[in-house]
Amino acid sequence: MSSKFYLLFLFVFLGSQSFAQFKLYEKGHSSYTSGNYADAIQNFSEYLTKPTRDKALDVEVFYLRALSYYKTNDFKNAINDFQETILLDHKNVGNIYWFLAKSYDKTGSLPDALGAYTSALRELDSNADSKVKLFYERSQIHTRMGNLTLAYADLKAAATLQPGNADVKRELAKLEKQNVGSPITTATGTQVAKNNQPTTQSTQQTKKEDKPPAKSEEKVVSTPTPAQQTVLPVVIAEPTLADLYKDEKRYALIIGNSAYPKAIGLLKNPVNDATDFAKELENSNFEVQLLTNATYGQMRAAML
Q1: Which one of 24, 127, 140, 204 is most buried, counting C-beta atoms within 10 A?
Q2: Residues 71 and 142 in one domain
Q3: For 86, phi and psi rounded to 5 degrees?
Q4: Is 165:145 a contact under the CB 8 Å cutoff?
Q5: pTM
Q6: Domain containing 96 — which CATH number?
Q7: How many domains is the chain built from?
Q8: Has residue 145 been placed in a domain?
Q9: Is residue 204 part of a domain?
Q10: Is residue 263 one of the residues assigned to a domain?
């Protein structure tokens, strides 16, 4: 009888705990929807400390707390929570990458912002309006990094999807004034391509004019007028991959586990291989975190 009473008491106790923790989630959600983001952060943070909480709600709690951090300009904490929602497979992953890109931009991590914009474009590929905005915003990051050719390519992609977009047209015009992405015409009307080579027609004309005169003809030398003189085009060099990513931060998490249960046994190579690999990446300017024989908790914490 006493054991039945104990089990009933334990069930009621745990049930009341779960209900109280769910109330924290509800309070956090209510605070978020009413625009009280500081209270939302406090309630969601307290909820996540509860070991017996309903962890199925974690993905939504991290998402709403990330948005609360974002709306209060705490972009560093927003980045951490947005990353957690991606790890937990939130269904709104396209927009999460978008917010992540904006957060990286706000913290000055431009290479990371580019990567997040690229992921957002991949996830939101079927939404034309979103793609136009993403191409436009990514072009601004390219411009600030000095990658004008890539900025131009993004703007052209946006213009293809939405030709009447005023912002896109304005930025394209700015770049074209700098001779980015468009052919350049000389004073004689000869069109010159990006690689500084004349078009086929002008090439053929040049070849024809370069032929030596026949012996019976008199060679007439004339000085071209200023209007006839060819103006050399300004050629903007295409950035190399090394140029684009010279300032990027490089991180590596390497895990080598050799110690397994008896059913598998002790493996010889994983720890040695992981250690060697870590040294190679450190030599390539990676910031390396090496874990050996780590538990699940240690590996997950390192990933976060």
Answers
A1: 24
A2: no
A3: -70, -45
A4: no
A5: 0.58
A6: 1.25.40.10
A7: 3
A8: yes
A9: no
A10: yes
Greater confidence (224 vs 103) lies with 103
Q: Are residues 99 and 80 in the same domain?
A: no
One domain, residues 118 and 72: no
Model confidence pLDDT, tens digit, residues 250-295 = 889 999 998 888 777 888 888 889 999 999 998 888 889 998 888 8
Most confident of 127-141, 188-202, 247-261: 127-141
Q: HSE on the CB side for 290, CA within 13 Å?
A: 16
82 lies in the same domain as 99: no
Can you say whether residue 62 is alpha, beta or left, with left for phi > 0 and alpha for psi between -120 and 50 degrees? Answer: alpha
- Output phi, psi for 213, to 5 deg: -70, 150
Both tokens of 300, joined, read 């997950």
Closest to 134 in 3D by CA, of 123, 144, 145, 147:
123
Tell me how far apart the alpha carbons of residues 251 and 12 are, in angstroms, rounded to a whole number. 48
pLDDT of amino acid 8: 42
Query: Alpha helices, DSSP H only, in 145-237?
Result: 148-161, 166-177, 200-210
Question: Which residues form the domain of 64?
Answer: 15-89
Contacts of 217 (CB under 8 A, 6+ apart): none
pLDDT of residue 206: 47
Q: How many CA atoms lie within 13 A of 274 on its CB side?
A: 19
The pairs formed by 191-199 with CB atoms below 8 angstroms and a separation of 24 or more are 192/233, 194/235, 195/235, 196/233, 196/235
Backbone CA torsion sign across 32, 34, 35, 40? negative
Residue type, 83: Q
Let me know whether 150 and 58 are in one domain.
Answer: no
User: Is the CB of residue 252 less than 8 Å from the CB of residue 287?
Assistant: yes
Amino acid at 69: Y
Residue 185 token pair: 């015409």
